[in-house]
Amino acid sequence: MGFLPVSSNLDLWYNFFNFFPKAPGKWRKLWLGANSKYVSTDGNDFSSTSSKVSSVSVPQTPRSEGEILQSTNVKSFSFSELKMSTRNFRPDSVLGEGGFGSVFKGWIDQHTFAASKPGTGMIIAVKRLNQESFQGHREWLAEVNYLGQLYHPHLVKLIGYCLEDEHRLLVYEFMPRGSLENHLFRRGSYFQPLSWSLRLKVALGAAKGLAFLHSAETKVIYRDFKTSNILLDSNYNAKLSDFGLAKDGPTGDKSHVSTRVMGTYGYAAPEYLATGHLTTRSDVYSFGVVLLEMLSGRRAVDKNRPAGEHNLVEWAKPYLANKRKMFRILDNRLEGQYTMEGAYKAATLALRCLSMEAKFRPTMDEVVTALEQLQEAKDNGVIQSNPSTGPRVRRRSTGDTPHGRSPAAYPRPSASPLYA
Fold first, then answer.
1. Between 76 and 190, where is the model more confident?
2. How far is CA 230 from its chain centroid?
3. Catalytic hit among 42, 224, 248, 331
4. N or C: which end of the chain has fewer CB within 10 A?
5. Distance between CA 184 and CA 327 in Å, rounded?
6. How many beta carbons lie within 10 A of that of residue 233, not counting itself?
7. Which of 226, 203, 184 is nearest to 342 (CA)?
8. Is the model's pLDDT at 59 over the cut of 90?
């Protein structure tokens, strides 16, 4: 989400920090303090945001940095506290890295939230912003703004933040099984392929998270839905993370939000790429891409594939609507785990989400309903993957036994960001 100082020009200050990336913290602090009132870069004020599952009344989304930090229901950590909890940000504490910065494993007391000795208390994930990133500060603030007020079983929990001199950090609940991206695409004994049943469970959980954001009470467009932003807890419950690009949805009689095109190659909706017009249906398209990744076991963009198969959506679309050809795009590691009808319904749902015309895509509430029906029917019998070849031997997948385990691995960049 982008913020523009009322009394300043965004490009001027953006260029200032590009040319002087090592600007002393006091100058950054001075600028932020002198320009504490913000409006959205598309000219719209923040709309009010609320949560169905929150036990507190969420106030109208604030407009200034100070108000955002004061209105959140999370802890303000000191830099020294987080330094202690992560053992001084030791390299062997790194859980993952991204454009924002690095994510470190830490420990705090589960009652007082004070830093505790490694191995004691509650495990946390600490995301540390690269100090040179001005764009990152805006995304950091957006993350505090949204996750500091929204609560849902399928949104990652923000425990606190740190804003001290040039330091900007975010503290989250620890997600033991890391990102969906790693479970789908990383190979090795620690990452057994997810079973069909678990893929449906993860898809449904992520869909519920998006549906909550799109609800009339919340009205938030996520804008960066992808496998690396879907984290899994110990029971493979999916939770959306990284709200740095989230935007308030259109209000009143407006049909969309106009904004700079930002996101990740391979996931962004075509109309958003073409016009910069953002709607909740833009998120639905991204969900369709992720669902297709889960069905196929292929990345949205993979230059290592043969010519004609680099872009997953372009390659797979011709097969999705054909009940006999559909099996060509399904992950062969799932052989024998799904019914023909179930696989076809999942493929058809992905195709609807990927419609070129936004108005023909389902809402996320409709997606949730469809996935719930699929999950209810998944145990009604398993038949062969390909109707022309007979039964196949079922391969072992994570989730086939209650002891399937894999190590924590937090998201790494899966594709290039889009900056218009």
1. 76
2. 5
3. 224
4. C
5. 18
6. 16
7. 203
8. no
What's the rounded Cα separation, in Å, for the pair 183 and 300? Answer: 15
**In the chain, what are the domains?**
3-173 (3.30.200.20), 180-419 (1.10.510.10)
C-alpha–C-alpha distance, residues 319 and 327, integer Å? 8
Predicted confidence (pLDDT) per residue in 156-183, tens digit: 999 999 988 888 999 999 999 999 999 9
**Top-confidence residue, 219 or 62:** 219
Q: At what angle do helices 340-353 and 312-320 cross, to 10 degrees?
A: 130
> What angle, rounded to 10 degrees, do the helices at 364-377 and 196-214 form?
160
**C-alpha dihedral (420, 248, 67, 127), degrees to nearest 10:** -60
Joined together, the tokens standing for residue 11 give 């490009």
- Locate 90 and state its tokens: 């030791």
CB-based contact 326:344 (threshold 8 Å): yes
The sheet with strand 101-108 has its strands ordered as 75-76, 158-164, 167-173, 122-129, 101-108, 94-97
Q: Please report the sign of the dihedral spanned by the C-alpha atoms of residue 350, residue 182, residue 145, residue 235.
A: positive
Contact 84/104 with Cβ under 8 angstroms? no
Helix 196-214 crosses helix 280-296 at what angle (to 10 degrees)?
A: 170
**Rg, C-alpha atoms of the chain:** 22
One-letter amino acid for residue 28 of the chain = R
Helices then strands, counting H and E runs in the chain, come out as 12, 16
What is the amino acid identity at position 112? T
The single residue listed with the structure tokens 């549906």 is 211
Task: Please answer whether residues 276 and 259 qualify as being in contact, where contact means their C-beta atoms are separated by less than 8 angstroms.
Answer: yes
Structure tokens at 13: 């200050």
User: Which residue in this structure is represented by tokens 């399904």?
Assistant: 330
* Residue 253 annotated in active site: no
